[in-house]
Design brief:
mainly alpha; 0% strand; 153 residues
C-alpha cells in the first residue's frame, strides 16, 4: 500500500469518525424507526398469511399464492432493515425508508379505492407513510443520522 493510499484511508476513517452521530437518539428518529418497523412487520405477516393460505388453503392457483407470499415476505425485508438502521442511526437507512414510504402511498390509494375494510387500512397506511416522510426529512433526524448540508467545493 502506498503512502498516498494510507493517507486517503486515514482521511476517510477520520471523516467517518467526525461525522458519526453523537448524543441521544431524537424521538423523531425513534418514531420513524418504529413506524417503519411496524410496516415491515405488517408486510411480513401478510406474506406469511398468503404463504400459509397457499399451502394449506384452497386457492385458485396454489403456485401463484405461494409465490405471492414469498414475494411479499421478500419485500418486508427492506423496511425491516431500514428500521434497524434508523434505530442504530446509520445514515444509509434513510434512503430505503424514504423509498418504502413513497411506494406505500400508491398502495394506500389503491386500498382506499377498494372499499369496505380496505378503506381503513389504506387511510392508516397513508397516515403512517406521510408521518414517516415528515419525520425523516426533519433537520433533527437528518443531523442525528449524520446527514448535513452539502458543502460546495
Amino acid at each position: 500500500m502506498s503512502s498516498q493510499q494510507k493517507q486517503s484511508a486515514s482521511r476517510a476513517a477520520a471523516a467517518t469518525a467526525s461525522t458519526a452521530p453523537t448524543g441521544p437518539r431524537p424521538a423523531r428518529l425513534s418514531a420513524a424507526a418504529a413506524l417503519t418497523a411496524v410496516e415491515g412487520l405488517a408486510l411480513a405477516a401478510l406474506g406469511a398469511y398468503m404463504l400459509i393460505m397457499g399451502l394449506a388453503g384452497a386457492p385458485d392457483s396454489a403456485q401463484q399464492a405461494e409465490m405471492g407470499g414469498l414475494t411479499v415476505l421478500a419485500l418486508a425485508v427492506l423496511p425491516l432493515v431500514a428500521a434497524r438502521g434508523l434505530w442504530l442511526r446509520r445514515r444509509w437507512s434513510r434512503g430505503p425508508s424514504l423509498i418504502t414510504q413513497i411506494v406505500a402511498l400508491p398502495v394506500a390509494w389503491t386500498l382506499v379505492n377498494g372499499g369496505g375494510v380496505l378503506i381503513a387500512a389504506g387511510i392508516g397506511l397513508a397516515v403512517a407513510a406521510l408521518v414517516v416522510l415528515v419525520l425523516l426529512v426533519n433537520p433533527t433526524a437528518t443531523e442525528a443520522l449524520g446527514i448535513g448540508p452539502r458543502e460546495t467545493p
